[in-house]
Amino acid sequence: MSSTEQVLSEFIDAWNAGRRPRVVEYLGRVPEGPERDELAEQIGTWLEVAPTPEYDPGARAQIRAEPIVRHVFEAVGQDAGLWPAVLPQLRAGAGLSVPQVASRLVERFGLGGTDEDRAAEYLERMERGELEPARVSRRLLDALGELLGASGRTLADAGRLGGAMRPAAAGGTLFRAGEDAGEWVARDIEALSRAAMRPAPSEMDELDRLFTGGPDG
Amino acid sequence: MAARSDSPRVGRHDDEHLRRFLAARERGDAAEMRCWWDELVIDFFDRMDGFVSVAHKGRLNHHEHELAVQMSMARFSERLISTYEGVSMGELVNACKTLARGICMDVQRAAARAHKRAASLDAGWNMDAEDRPAPSWEADEAWHRLDREERSAEVRDFLDWALPQIGEDRRRVLELSFEGASIPEICEELGISEQNAYQRRSRAFRDLKRLKERYDA
What we know:
The complex is a heterodimer.
Chain A: H1 4-16, H2 23-27, H3 34-49, H4 57-64, H5 67-75, H6 83-94, H7 98-108, H8 115-128, H9 138-148, H10 152-160, H11 181-197, H12 206-212
Helix pairs in contact in A: 1-3, 7-8, 7-9, 9-10
Chain B: H1 13-27, H2 30-56, H3 62-82, H4 89-119, H5 142-149, H6 155-162, H7 168-178, H8 183-190, H9 194-216
């Protein structure tokens, strides 16, 4: 074991040299207890004020290839951000299966036992990135976060990650009517009138609102 | 002062990345935003990893640590894109530290709960209040809070205030450290032994931490 003072200095030198020292490894060089706590505080102070080293292209490429960074970059292109990467991990870390999470959520919101299967289905869709994060309610994210060990806000950010940088969906395209416009307009009107005569879809129940009713659902 | 051929310049390139990112965000230029956001994520990854390690002081296992870093990076990245209102790297570093600390606490609590759950399969939803994730939806506005309250915590302002209050011997070691000097270079510059340099650096950080606490208060 080295002295705390020496380890701190070695960390700072490695940081400044762009050698990407890992704090956890340096902490492991001193005995657990007050010494390690003090070293952690001192390294924390350094990290608060230290300039970012000017990494060379090799080091930047190395950071870019870190699994966490790769996931974050890839999540920008995904509709559900980091949910597919993070939710199953959180659940596994909490030692819960999907049905167990569903059962606790149903209990938490005072829903009927018959909702458990549907809740489990929704949860599986969330984990697969098939639910739109913007439509999942805050209440649900808070409750899920409490079960899995993350704040609702953290879960929301993980799902929305990078949404603002995705290319915008193509806007509506306007066509000017060519020949025989009357015929296709009539067809459209007919289709619309058929749709209008159909019975309205069933109302969302509490479970639907939690998973797809929007932030305030 | 001794030449530091093996040390990369400890520069303010990250300031430039942030400035360009914010300018692109202001213009709504998604492609340009993405480009500079990528660079900022790379700039911040090691620091975030470090803040997470400092927060749990080596008490999370590898998997839990990685999960905490991943969620911290997700929140950091998404907040940066969508709501970050600050303008300086100092503010961003502070935000980074606060996020890492909060998420680490959540992951640690979840790990402890999973442990308890493994011991008692009946343990369920009704966790103790202190077991719940720290930040509620409404209260977890660390990012905005930082925007408002921690503007004054700009690193350079802090150092301008703090450094003159530190004794000459220790202050010189700190200044050289911020310039990227390694221990052998500090020894050469100040004509002191390696052991003395370790000691001065460590004590200087103790002083700096105490001053930071006063400054933040």
